[in-house]
Amino acid sequence: GMCFVSLSSIVRAHMDDLFPGREVTEFSQFRVTRHSDKALDEEDVRNLRTALRQGLQQRHYGQAVRLEVSAGCSAFLSDFLLEQFALPPATLFRVPGPVNLVRLSQLVDLVNDPALLFPPWSASWPRQLLSGVSILEQLRQRDVLIHQPFESFDGVLAFLREAVNDPHVLVIKQTIY
Predict the structure, then answer these.
(1) What SS3 state is found at 3?
(2) Are 103 and 155 in a shared domain?
(3) Whole domain around residue 133: which residue ranges?
(4) Distance between CA 93 and CA 126 in Å, rounded?
(5) How high is the pLDDT of residue 37?
């Protein structure tokens, strides 16, 4: 079978090799979240892909806004990190377990065992939308809230298809998250 080891465990096990002649007194995982609000003026941006790529390349220069540390991180080390990133204590979050669980999603494709996976989710048509009835007409009558991923994105796609073909629609604007 396969055996997975976190990078932080490897670093911890080889501290003497990584820092020869030094005494390491503190060790903890931590993650800094930086302000990455990238305002794009759609009138000025001719190539959205290039603008987003430039924003991502410059993202690591944003101001620190949050510090996550593992639950076992000492007060001395967490205070030191808060000071280094110029953060107030209210932005410190202690996490029980690995600091960034999102990274573990990469392991899903490496292990071929259905017993370890949830069954595939099949999203349903949005309950507030009547299928086969004009979505624009339904929106004129009331607001509609779609709960994704529980309800499918098909209602949004149907709305966009209908809006594209409606002569009264002058512009379609979307926010990309």
Answers:
(1) coil
(2) no
(3) 121-177
(4) 36
(5) 65
CA–CA separation, 108 and 117 (whole Å): 8
Amino acid at 96: P
Token digits of residue 80: 């030191």
Concatenated DSSP letters of 37-84 = -----TTT-S-HHHHHHHHHHHGGGSPEEEEEEETT--HHHHHHHHHH
- Distance from chain centroid for Cα 94: 19
Residue 36 in domain? yes
Alpha-carbon distance 168 to 117, whole Å? 47
Entry pTM: 0.58
Measured between alpha carbons, how far is 159 from 153 in angstroms, rounded to an integer?
A: 10
Same domain, 149 and 168: yes
pLDDT digits (tens, 9 = 90+) for 138-174: 999 999 999 988 999 999 999 999 999 999 999 999 8
> How confident is the model over 37-83, as pLDDT tens digits?
666 556 555 666 677 677 666 655 778 999 999 999 999 999 999 99
Distance of alpha carbon 155 from alpha carbon 125, whole angstroms: 7
Query: Alpha carbon 21 to chain centroid distance?
Result: 39
Question: How is 132-167 classified by DSSP, letter by letter?
Answer: TS-HHHHHHHS-----TTTB-THHHHHHHHHHHH-T
Q: Which two tokens stand for residue 150?
A: 């529980």
